[in-house]
Amino acid sequence: MPDRPHVVAVCGSLRDDSYTRKALRIALDEAENRGASVDLIDLRELDLPVFDADDDDAGDAPELRERVGRADSVVLGTPVYHGSYSSALKTALDYCGFDEFEHATVGLLCVAGGSFPITSLDHLRSVARSLNAWVVPHQVALPKVRTKFDGSDLREEGDAERVRTLGQRVVEYADIEPDPPCPESVENVGASD
């Protein structure tokens, strides 16, 4: 393992009082408690126009790629929109690729107003695997999220424990031996040899 693993969280919510951001902060606090350096990429603070392959350095895309590329582990956090992840996170991921994610460890977290947020995590898992990242088996879904927080703290210890465990796992597996390329990444345009 690196002397001090670096964990980056990408917040796919643009709301001011975002539950996604609050949950990611809990995960990052745990990662920091486990010895990692941490960075929260708040997409509200970056200028990322809708991705155009003819202008892949638009806005703050170079900064985003540099910050994600430094990570040993990346936690992707999103609110659930229409059974999937947010367009803000989709745009950020479109600006990134193999250089940023290949052989990285990825953790997944989502929050939802409703009661069944799992498909967004499945979609993010597919994206990460297509970039040859290693996705932590433990993932976090917080359904009915409006009832979950008291300020910046989770009300239920079980929820808090799941989020902290995600922070722990991305540190523990920051140096995991990469798997051979998956079929999705080999067929993905831009895949490295």
From TrEMBL:
One of its GO terms (cellular component) is cytosol. It comes from the Archaea. Its cofactor is [4Fe-4S] cluster. One of its GO terms (molecular function) is oxidoreductase activity. InterPro entries: Flavoprotein-like_sf, FMN_Rdtase-like_dom, NAD(P)H-dep_reductase. Residues 6-144 form the NADPH-dependent FMN reductase-like domain. Belongs to the SsuE family. Isf subfamily. This is NAD(P)H-dependent oxidoreductase. It comes from Halosimplex pelagicum.
